[in-house]
Structures are given as C-alpha cells and as structure tokens.
Design a protein that fits this description.
The chain contains seven helices and six strands; from the N terminus they run ααβααβααββββα. Helix 4 runs parallel beside helix 7. Helix content is 60%, strand content 15%. Strand 3 and strand 4 form a beta hairpin.
C-alpha cells in the first residue's frame, strides 16, 4: 500500500510541477513579448529622433573659441544696446536643435530675438566643452541639462539662467512661455 501511495504522491507532485512550470513559461513568454514591444518602440523613437536631428540646422560651432566670441558679442551688444542670450548645448542635443528651429520659425519670437538680443549658441560637446566659459556662468548645464539659456546684459554680466524644461510643451516648446521669457529680459540694457 505504501508503494501505491508513494507513486500517487510522485505523480501528483510531477503534475503540479509541470503545471507550475507551464505557468512560469507562459509568464516568461508574455514578459518577453512586452519587453520586445518596448524595445521595438524605443528603437522606433531613436530612429525618429535621429532623422529629426539630421534634418534640423546645426547652429553650434564645435571649433569656435567661445570665450573670444562672447567678448566680441559684448562689444556688439553695447553698440546695439541689446542683451545677449547664450543657448548652451550642442548639435548632439535634439532639444537644443528643436529650440533653435522653433524660435527662428516662429515670426513673433524671431522678431523679439532680433530686436532685443544677440543670440549665440554656446557649444558643449565631447570635442569642445568650453569649460572655462561654463565655469564663468556657474556651469548651468550641470544644473539644468541642455539646452540652458544664460542671459547677459550689454556689459557681459550674467543676469539670468533659464532652465529650458519649463519652456517645453509636448515634444516642442510653448510659444507663450518662450515669449514671456524673452520679453522679461528684453528691456534696454
């Protein structure tokens, strides 16, 4: 009788193990499908971002001596009674490229920039980090990410650092928020 009970118990355990194994396999398979869908979605997003990055203008000059260029811009700002906006970032940064495209393709924003500011793209990239310049302005990219904006008066004195995240809307920028930012510092130097 003990042999029969042992065999029944063995068969029951084996059946339970098989059922449990099938459930785990099913869960693993569904998890794998979900992970696969996430990977496909992430790959599609990366491809779309790369295509967008490729078509947008590249305003950052990796080889430029930013310290020397900003000194020239200060002289220009004094002569034209304008402020300077440094847009820190790089051609590698999709949000930097989007902002540049956005302000230049939105007539009202482009006019505010042209009338009140000297607009400069301060490069930060592996090829040229412009560390000395970034230190002078309290390393805004380390605090806020990119792009980040530094507003200078006509004498080259930093008067504001603007986090770009608060200007975003969806996958772009809010015209109203950007306009408010630009107008706030656009007054005569």
């Amino acid at each position: 009788m003990n042999i029969i009970k042992t065999k029944i118990l063995s068969i029951s355990l084996l059946a339970s193990f098989s059922l449990l194994s099938a459930q785990v396999t099913t869960k693993d398979t569904s998890k794998t499908k979900a992970e696969t869908q996430q990977t496909v979605s992430a790959d599609a997003a990366k491809k779309a971002a790369a295509e967008e990055r490729a078509r947008l203008p590249k305003p950052y000059n990796v080889e430029e001596d930013a310290e020397k260029k900003i000194a020239e811009l200060v002289l220009q700002a004094k002569a034209e009674n304008k402020k300077i906006i440094l847009q820190a970032g790089g051609n590698w940064c999709i949000w930097c490229l989007r902002f540049n495209e956005f302000v230049h393709s939105t007539p009202e924003l482009n006019k505010i920039l042209a009338d009140s500011y000297i607009y400069y793209h301060l490069n930060y990239s592996p090829e040229n980090k412009n560390e000395k310049v970034f230190e002078k302005y309290d390393n805004p990219g380390a605090k806020y990410g990119y792009p980040v904006f530094v507003v200078l008066d006509a004498d080259g004195k930093m008067i504001h650092t603007q986090d770009s995240a608060v200007l975003e809307e969806g996958k772009g920028y809010s015209a109203d928020k950007v306009k408010e930012f630009l107008q706030k510092y656009a007054g005569n130097s």
